Amino acid sequence: MGELQKIYQTLYIHYGDLDWWPADTPFEVMVGAILTQNTAWTNVEKALKQFDGNLSPRRILALPMKELQEIIRPAGFFRQKSQYLKAVTEWFMSYDCAPHLIKSRPLSDIRTELLQVRGVGNETADSILLYGFDFPTFVVDAYTTRFFRRFPLDVGKTYMEVKNFCESELPRDAELFGHFHALIVHHCKERCKKKMVCRGCPLEQRCEKIS
Ligand code: SF4
User: Which of 146, 185, 193, 203 for a ligand 1 pocket mutation test, highest count of atoms within 8 Å of Cβ?
Assistant: First the structure.
């Protein structure tokens, strides 16, 4: 078993199933993935609450831009994000809002297509595809890169280098990728922070703790 798999297993045994992503439908994952850009999830939750249980593709497209901006204001960058939400919703509507039509496309094609949508970068695209549509695509964020460098693992520098490294070292399994990303984020908030808390860390023995 490779080092990355051992790290995953250690974190999974320690923290268990964290039940990510907190959404009931693929569309909610899409909206959350846009709203969480550059802000904490607690702010996303405040914005989502303002939809009063009425969050649907038709409503997002029908809402005047100013009204949509007021609803999502708690998530910050609301002018940009309102435009991104409309754009990603239009993309979803182009598939009749039918997840099975999206899931039937090859991953590389659908990822390339999603990256053309306004406001969708690598991390947002991979979050949507992994958590919304069960594609086996690894999500990388700042936590991931910082965490791996502390061992150190030679993951590379760019988003795609880190992603390709992880995907080449792990079984290509959407469930595993989903759990692993959640575990990394959780672990980096709990322990592997900027100022790391190594004492008692489940990975203490195998990590060189490079700061
Ligand atoms: S031992 Fe320290 S640096 Fe290594 S993973 Fe744990 S908290 Fe992070």
Answer: 203
This prediction has a pTM of: 0.96
Q: For the chain, what are the domain ranges?
A: 3-19+138-190, 26-133
- Tens-place pLDDT, residues 159-203: 999 999 999 999 999 999 999 999 999 999 999 999 999 999 999
For residues 98 and 88, the answer to whether their CB atoms sit within 8 Å is no
Q: Which CATH superfamily is domain 26-133 in?
A: Hypothetical protein; domain 2 (1.10.340.30)
Q: What are the residue ranges of helices labelled H in the chain? A: 3-15, 26-35, 41-49, 57-62, 65-72, 78-93, 99-103, 107-115, 122-127, 133, 142-149, 159-169, 174-190
pLDDT in tens, 120-136: 999 999 999 999 999 99
C-beta atoms surrounding 66 within 10 Å:
9
Nearest ligand 1 atom to the CA of 202 is 6
